[in-house]
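Section handout, structural biology tutorial.
Before the tutorial, make sure you can parse a SMILES string by hand: atoms, branches in parentheses, ring closures as digits. In the record below the ligand is flavin-adenine dinucleotide, and the chain has 425 residues. In the tutorial you will relate the predicted structure tokens back to the input. Do not try to memorize them.
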Amino acid sequence: MADPGHYDVAIIGAGIVGCSTAFALAKRGFKTLNLDALPSAGYGSTSASSAIIRPMYTHEVSACISHECRFIWQRWPDFVGLASSEPLARYDECGGLMLLREGELEGKQPMMNAMASAGVTFEVVGGEELRRRFPDISLDGYGPPRAYDDPAFGSPSSGAIEHAIVVNEAGYVNDPQLAARNLFFAAQNHGASFQFNTAVQSIDQEEGCLRLMTSQGQVIADKVVNAAGPHSSKVNTIAGIDLNIGLRALRHEVAYLSHKIAHFEKGPCLIVDVDAGVYQRPDGDDMLIGTTDPACDDEDVIDPDDVNMNLTDHWTRQAMRAAQRFPQYQIPNQAKGTVGVYDVSTDWIPIYDKTDVHNFFVAIGTSGNQFKNGPLIGEIMAEVMTAPDHDHAPAQLALTHINKRIDLGFYSRNRTIQETRGVMA
Ligand SMILES: Cc1cc2nc3c(=O)[nH]c(=O)nc-3n(C[C@H](O)[C@H](O)[C@H](O)COP(=O)(O)OP(=O)(O)OC[C@H]3O[C@@H](n4cnc5c(N)ncnc54)[C@H](O)[C@@H]3O)c2cc1C
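Predicted structure of the complex:
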């Protein structure tokens, strides 16, 4: 049965976002309860994350937050403060690069400005240097990517890869579910409560509080945070919230290919390859191949309660696009990979904000790119939730590693919708 106690904050969801929020609020002395329909922390979309940590973003705030988080991932054991016997997620700084076709470098100036403002070190290298570092890379141009059923799929287009933006201060977290679990234990150590196998079914105002009916009974809280991942718009609906920014659940597949055959001089690294329509990141002997959602592919908008968890021809098309860049990849007959769902906002920027329902907050719309910011999402929410008037005087967040202050109005539900339309937001 649900604890009938009265909580300061009920958090719907115990993924990386819900656990981070619990950790930050519990550290500030709030009595919190996370409710999750699944059996444990990080079992939702967080478990399928590619967990890439990179500062390549168009917007300055995004680059600053992600770069600040990179320092926290580097010091993860100190951040979560768990006993040394506890298994911990590990950040591997393998470095990364973004491939650019002829004429594309100039268009990346906003991204380079954003990274420079965040204090990221990066370099631009030309095709010759790229070929030296990646002897087996194909620098043929393939973009814009073609649909899988296009007869010309896999044939080079005119033009070639001319530059790469190389960022050494980038990498990945080896086990995103474990990272959420680390935050779950860390939050518990500060007094946070969690209740699993508990679905929130309705939310009503009651005498200045919010009453949540769950599959296990009733919970009363002063404030509620929607951290329901791909179910965020369903939870908004039961709370009576209709935001200006749209949300949709987008199914994604990630293919695993052995990198032992492809040649990386200094070991495999992250590769953002919008020209071929994929990103790649190492994982043991494999590379994880995800999509950059090129315009030629239909969006796989789904009901998050009815997800096809089988790998499909999306797996094949991603594997083949990766093999355009590294023709040495062998595509196995047996598909190996994973399926996950993004919670996508109209401009692919999250909404970390209050709402028009009194004391109901949202940490949603993470758009396939917010795992990396997991360590700070809780801090963002804590600042937003304790600000006297966040809509008119937005809360700020101090980023101590990069020595910046960030205006959290950037994540407002009332923001002007940005032009960004993809996971690289
Ligand atoms: C395939 C894939 C690749 C990705 N790659 C990257 C990457 O490389 N780098 C990066 O930074 N980000 C990446 N992301 C994005 C990142 O993983 C997500 O932004 C993040 O994990 C979302 O966390 P969350 O806590 O919001 O959601 P979730 O982990 O889905 O947690 C939400 C929780 O809410 C619970 N819930 C929902 N509704 C209810 C309800 N009514 N009652 C109770 N509980 C409820 C669910 O059970 C779930 O456990 C990727 C995502 C996917 C799917």
